[in-house]
Amino acid sequence: MSNETSADRSIGDVIEANPTTATGPRIGSTEAVFEPPGVIETNEMSVYYGAFRAVADVSLAFGKNQISALIGPSGCGKSTVLRSLNRMNDLIATARTEGEVHYHGQNIYADGVDPVEVRRTIGMVFQKPNPFPKSIFDNIAWGAKINGFKGSKIEMEDLVREALESAALWDEVKDKLNESGYSLSGGQQQRLCIARAIATKPDVILMDEPCSALDPIATLRIEELMLELKEDYSIIIVTHNMQQAARVSDKTAFFNVKLNDAGMRTGRLVEYSPTDQLFTSPREKDTEDYITGRFG
Amino acid sequence: MTDTKDTNVHFHQELEQLERKVLSMVDRAEQMVAVAVEAVTSDDTDLAGRVLEADVGIDATYAEVHQDWTSLMARNQPLGSDLRRMAVLIQLNVTFERMGDQCVNIAKIARFNAGLPRVERICEQIREMGDLVRPMIRTAIEAYVRGDVDEARRLPVMDQPVDRLNANMYKETVAVRDNPQLLEWATKMLMVSRALERIGDQAVDFGEQTVYLMTGERAEFDEDGMARTFDDQPAD
Predict the structure, then answer these.
(1) CB-based contact, A213 to chain B, within 8 Å
(2) What pLDDT shows up at residue A60?
(3) Topology of the domain covering A11-291
(4) What distance in Å separates residue B49's CA from the closest CA in chain A?
(5) Mutual orientation of helices A136-146 and A153-166 as an angle, nearest 10°?
(6) Residues linked to residue A70 through DSSP beta bridges, in sequence order
(7) Is A259 on the interface with B (CB under 8 A)?
(8) Is B20 part of any domain?
(9) Does A33 touch chain B (CB under 8 A)?
(10) Are A130 and A22 in contact (CB under 8 A)?
(11) Rounded CA gap, A186 and A130, in Å?
């Protein structure tokens, strides 16, 4: 990883001081059109698990207040890429990230950057709803507290209410805030997890297959919620459901598995295009083969 | 990862069957044009009746295609070139059904005009338009089946004489304005000319659909066959 002179500044400081700074590469190098700087940009990012290179040379820029989708077959590295965007892979002992991940121009892997602060600013919602074994209220309040919230009781109540309202859950739980988070349905639990992520005032929300454990109605509610949330947040979602990516995302990145000469399977970025284009007229044959089911 | 296999084989088989059903309408539409033109230029009401009967078959296929298409779309939600092909097929289904309707209009005029005095020069012009339009339908389907974008781009060029003959028909009609019976007949023939001109336009649209299918670009042909994408066109 390269060293950054501004590494001792927090991510929050960087965004406050210079919200449009971006030093990362332009993604989609074949595209000549101008694009505003991405909120997160990766530059030649590779992720290893021990000696195994799971994903190689990913250069991508995720747009501000956009929903960006990562799609591809199992093992293509899309979840690995997602987890690298907020240093979640640091929690895996053998994981190692090379290249750069810039958040508003700041390399989040630079020396001195606090990964906990990174994860607060770039929140994550997981595949399976994972509420804490606490009340609905405390699911929000506890996450905010451990991330440094120091407001009064009333301010905390406001925070919980705002987070639940933003996650389109308030009307359903306002009369049972002291009941366990586990008492909610799967779809409600996932919205509770989204509310918990929102309560820490992130800038970016990463979602790893957030609807794969939900029924179609609950899935639609989450998708509607994502479209509402993108007014205030930038969202990056990994999904196996191509129709979901087509429905909600502005841009889509397709990853595929490539075999190297030694027979090792490594995920690579194949195409990153506006979603409408990728799903109707993809530039790359690999993408076309995948989305039409012609896949080996 | 070099070999690809079709993991969506059942959908692709159904898509192929749907495509065959849509394209089966083309031959019938082309024959209907020939018969309708013969009926209206030779005062043959029996032939006109055959056009009306043929259109029942076209309409039935149109309804079947619509149902099959809806079912296929609901079950598969295709993407990429599969989605483009589905979009093109539902458009072509409408195009061929409307070609049939234009032939029905001509056949009805053949019945209406039966026995009225006629101008042979106008009949010849209508026959000429029919002889120009039918090869356009043939060219359009060959371009589609072969995925030949260059062949599809010939269609607007082929359409130019059809448009000229249609424009000329107004002059022919005005020329008989002093004879009320001839004028009534010629006015109806002007509608025949207009129907044939529309069929030519529909063949051009068929060609544009082929370009979209093969390239993914929505395009509208210029008169010389160059395609302008919708993005290139000035805003209203």
Answers:
(1) no
(2) 95
(3) Rossmann fold (3.40.50)
(4) 43
(5) 110
(6) A238, A253
(7) yes
(8) yes
(9) no
(10) no
(11) 10
Model confidence, pTM: 0.81
- Tokens for A163? 């987070």
User: CA torsion A35→A126→A75→A30, rounded to 10°?
Assistant: 0
Q: Can you tell me the distance from the alpha carbon of A94 to that of A272, in angstroms, rounded to the nearest whole number? A: 28
- Residue B184, domain CATH: 1.20.58.220
Half-sphere exposure of B148 (CA within 13 A, CB side): 12
Q: What are the tens digits of pLDDT across the range A26-85?
A: 333 334 445 667 899 999 999 999 999 999 999 999 999 999 999 999 999 999 999 999
Residue with tokens 């000469």: A261
Facing A296 at nearest CB: one of B3, B8, B83? B3
Q: Provide the number of structural domains found in chain B.
A: 1
Note the ipTM here: 0.78
How far apart, in whole angstroms, are the C-alpha atoms of residue A147 and residue B45? 87
A-B Cβ pairs (cutoff 8 Å, strict)? 52
Taking each helix axis from N to C end, the angle separating A153-166 and A186-199, rounded to the nearest 10 degrees, works out to 130
- Give the CA distances from residue B140 to residues A5, B158, B202, B216, in Å, rounded to whole numbers and listed in that order: 64, 11, 10, 18
CA distance A74 to A56: 16
Does the distance separating the beta carbons of B81 and A295 come in below 8 Å?
no
Contact: B8, A294; criterion CB under 8 Å: yes
Segments in chain A below pLDDT 70: 1-36, 296
Residue B5 lies in a domain: no
Minimal CA separation from A185 to chain B, in Å: 28
Longest dimension (CA), chain A: 62
Give the CB-side neighbour count of residue B99, counting CA atoms within 13 A. Answer: 33
Phi, psi for residue B16 in degrees, rounded to 5: -65, -40
Residues of B with Cβ-Cβ distance to A246 under 8 angstroms: 79
What is the rounded CA–CA span in Å between residue A191 and residue A129?
8
Q: Is B14 a member of any domain? A: yes
| Domain range for B44 | 10-231
> Is B99 contained in some domain?
yes
